Amino acid sequence: MEAESNTPKRELSPFTQFCLTNLSPIDDYISFYPITTNTLKLNKLYSFPQKRALSSLTPKCACKRSQCLKMYCECFAANSLCADCDCIGCSNIPIEDETKLISHEKLKIVNVKHQRGCSCKRSNCRKKYCECYQKNLYCKHFCKCLSCENM
After folding, report:
1. Count of CB atoms within 10 A of residue 18's CB?
2. How far apart are CA 69 and CA 90, in angstroms?
3. For 109-130, what is the mean pLDDT?
4. Which of these, 28, 56, 110, 132, is most buried using a 10 Å CB contact count?
5. What is the tens place of the pLDDT at every residue in 45-89?
6. How far is the C-alpha of 104 from the C-alpha of 98, rounded, in Å?
7. Domains of the chain: which residue ranges?
8. Residue range 3-56, pLDDT digits in tens
9. What is the distance, to the nearest Å, from the Cα of residue 71 to the centroid of all Cα atoms in its chain?
10. What is the value of pTM for the model shown?
11. Residues 41, 45, 51, 52: is their CA dihedral positive or negative?
12. CA nearest 97: which of 68, 60, 65?
C-alpha cells in the first residue's frame, strides 16, 4: 500500500475533464463527476455543434417575392410542399393550382436542361438559381455562363 501513496495523482487536462463530465459514456454506467464552475467555463470553450434533428433535414425556405414557385426556393426545388417555412405569400401548398403545375413543368425542363449546363450572365454562378451551383457541381466546358466563379 505504501507504493500507492507515494505515486503522485495525475492532473486531468481541461479537455479530459470536459469530456468526462459532459459527454455520454459508451457503457451504461453513471458518471459521478460534479458540475463545477470550471466545467461550465469549459462548456463555452469546447462547444460542439448539436446534431441536426431529422425534422430539420426537410427544406425550409424564406421566400419573400417568388411565392415559392421559382427554382431557388429550397422546398420547390426539392419537389416538396412548404411546411413550417418563413415564406411570405406562399403558393407552394397542397392546392393543385394551374400556376403551380406550370412551374413544376418548367422545373422538369430545367432539370433536363442541366445536362447541357447553365447559362448564367450576371450571377457568376454563385446563386441558387444556377443549375450547377444548386446541385453542388462545378461548371463544365459545355456551360454557357459568363464570368464564372464556380470552377
Report:
1. 19
2. 8
3. 75
4. 132
5. 444 444 444 445 677 888 988 888 777 788 877 778 888 888 988
6. 10
7. 11-45, 54-116, 117-151
8. 555 656 667 778 777 777 776 655 444 445 454 555 555 544 444 444 444 445
9. 18
10. 0.37
11. positive
12. 68
Which residues, 6+ apart, have CB-to-CB distance to 100 below 8 Å?
69, 91, 92
Average pLDDT (104-132) is 74
All three cell numbers of 107, joined, read 422545373
Length of the chain (residues): 151
Q: Say which amino acid occupies 51.
A: K
Q: Using CB atoms within 10 Å of the CB of residue 77, give its burial: 0 to 12 exposed, 13 to 18 middle, 19+ buried.
A: buried
As a whole number of angstroms, the distance between CA 115 and CA 4 comes to 72
The pLDDT assigned to 114 comes to: 53
C-alpha cell at 99: 400556376
Q: Give the pLDDT of residue 51.
A: 41
pLDDT for position 90: 86
Q: Letter for the amino acid at 4?
A: E
Nearest Cα residue to 90 out of 77, 101, 111, 76: 76
